[in-house]
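Example S7 (structure tokens).
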């Protein structure tokens, strides 16, 4: 007769031939009490699987080494105007800015807030009214086009001018369309517009964000 219980140094252990029956997960019920009316209802439990992916950048310093810098440079040269989405904590876009600086580009950094009309500010003589503080007479000063003025000051060995606009998410669709066609109006200009934030640094052609089709871009030229 097979023994149902075996002993090991005086300790009772369950038999290895004994089979335990477990209830399936879908048959487990929980009791929920709502106010004075307590009742039991069945609820289905489903298994959830969580995967954590680890890349090579997690081992060698992903904040310092960016494997898409080559693609970044080629897209800047191909599309000439890009909309970028940086991380909320910031800092990563500086890696891509420095890569353009190493290529010989000069930078014109502007904020979309208070920029006014981009076409007037960047390509035309535009008026600026200084703060009069309530005591001085209201004056109006005229400034040269920002882009044309910076292009005239570029050193001979410079590759071009990058107009880097932060907070471009506040610009209207028409203003983004002008920024998208600005490199066609000024061939030595590249446009980078920060249009929002994302979980990782990414970019896309600015004409796609502005809703500018290829035919409309050709007509603008």
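Recovered sequence:
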């Amino acid at each position: 007769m097979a023994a149902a219980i075996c002993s090991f140094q005086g300790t009772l252990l369950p038999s290895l031939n004994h089979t335990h029956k477990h209830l399936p997960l879908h048959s487990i019920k929980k009791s929920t009490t709502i106010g004075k009316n307590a009742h039991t209802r069945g609820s289905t439990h489903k298994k959830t699987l969580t995967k954590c992916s680890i890349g090579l950048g997690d081992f060698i310093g992903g904040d310092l080494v960016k494997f898409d810098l080559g693609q970044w440079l080629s897209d800047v040269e191909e599309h000439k105007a890009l909309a970028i989405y940086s991380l909320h904590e910031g800092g990563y876009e500086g890696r891509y800015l420095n890569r353009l600086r190493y290529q010989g580009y000069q930078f014109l950094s502007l904020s979309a807030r208070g920029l006014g009309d981009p076409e007037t500010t960047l390509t035309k003589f535009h008026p600026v009214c200084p703060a009069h503080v309530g005591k001085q007479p209201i004056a109006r000063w005229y400034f040269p086009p920002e882009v044309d003025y910076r292009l005239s000051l570029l050193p001979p060995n410079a590759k071009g001018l990058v107009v880097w606009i932060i907070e471009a998410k506040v610009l209207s669709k028409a203003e983004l369309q002008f920024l998208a066609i600005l490199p066609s109006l000024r061939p030595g200009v590249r446009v980078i517009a920060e249009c929002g934030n994302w979980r990782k640094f990414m970019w896309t052609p600015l004409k796609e964000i502005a809703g500018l089709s290829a035919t409309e871009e050709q007509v603008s030229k």
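Notes on this example. The radius of gyration is 32 Å.
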